[in-house]
């Protein structure tokens, strides 16, 4: 490596050390990191790699072993009201196939989820007067259930009491079903 290459490599190392809060100066004094240092979190609940757990709550719903406030379904996906909702009208969409995260979805499943999300968002506007919505999808960190799923969360008050009762979930599901646009 020539002098210019060595100088570039040294500058890269110095910059990286600065991000870690270490000074590359002679005194090696700590410096404020450019980004906050986040402490190590608890182990991942749903790491990207791993085997599918057929005991997860969504697998139990798909097998009919757990109650669900169903809104809509087709041959590839299911849409229902979650227990730990963020707002009234919050919906989860899951594939029927046993798959840990979106990396395992095939194109048809992913498109079916997005198509259902659009239908649900329109129903949220009609049923709850929401003025927008958030699509949320987590893989690995922040993924609570190791079965691929997408949240469709309407932007509408009020904040709900958590966890939702089955009666609350069923009432929301009925309201959304009634407002669901046709295919």
List the helices and strands and how they pair.
Blueprint lengths: L2 H17 L37 H6 L6 E5 L3 E5 L9 E5 L11 H22 L4 E4 L13 E5 L11 H14 L4
Antiparallel strand pairs: 1-2, 2-3, 3-5, 4-5
Helix pairs in contact: 3-4
What is the ordering of alpha helices and beta strands? HHEEEHEEH
H/I helix tally: 4
Unreliable spans are 12-38
How would you state the average pLDDT, rounded? Answer: 81
Rg from C-alpha positions? Answer: 23 Å
Q: Which second-level CATH architecture of the largest domain applies?
A: 2-Layer Sandwich
Strand content: 5-15%
Shape: globular
Assembly form of the protein:
single chain
Instruction: Kindly state the percentage of residues in helix.
Output: 25-40%
Biggest β-sheet description: 5 strands, antiparallel
Q: According to CATH, what is the topology of the largest domain?
A: HIT family, subunit A
Give a concise summary.
Residues 12-38 have low confidence and may be disordered.
Relevant terms:
single chain, 183 residues, alpha+beta, HIT family, subunit A, five-stranded antiparallel β-sheet, 13% strand, globular, signal, HIT family protein, catalytic activity, HIT-like_sf, Histidine_triad_HIT
Can you describe this structure?
It is a single chain. This protein is α+β, with helices and mostly antiparallel strands and 183 residues long. The protein folds into two domains: 1-39, no CATH class; 57-179, 2-Layer Sandwich (HIT family, subunit A), CATH 3.30.428. The chain has four helices and five strands, in the order ααβββαββα. It has helices spanning 3-19, 57-62, 107-128, 166-179; strands at residues 69-73, 77-81, 91-95, 133-136, 150-154. The protein is globular.
């Amino acid at each position: 490596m020539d002098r210019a290459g060595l100088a570039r490599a040294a500058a890269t190392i110095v910059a990286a050390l600065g991000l870690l809060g270490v000074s590359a100066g002679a005194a090696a004094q700590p410096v404020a990191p450019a980004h906050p240092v986040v402490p190590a979190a608890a182990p991942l609940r749903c790491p990207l790699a791993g085997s599918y757990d057929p005991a997860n709550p969504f697998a139990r719903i798909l097998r009919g072993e757990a109650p669900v406030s169903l809104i809509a379904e087709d041959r590839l996906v299911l849409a229902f009201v979650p227990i730990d909702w963020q707002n009234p009208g919050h919906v989860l969409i899951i594939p029927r196939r046993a798959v840990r995260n979106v990396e395992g979805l095939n194109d048809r499943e992913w498109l079916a989820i997005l198509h259902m999300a659009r239908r649900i968002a329109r129903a949220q506007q009609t049923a709850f007067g929401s003025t927008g919505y958030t699509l949320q999808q987590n893989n690995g960190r922040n993924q609570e259930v190791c079965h691929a799923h997408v949240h469709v969360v309407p932007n509408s008050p009020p904040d709900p009491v958590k966890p939702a009762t089955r009666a609350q979930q069923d009432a929301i599901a009925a309201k959304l079903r009634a407002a669901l646009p046709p295919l």
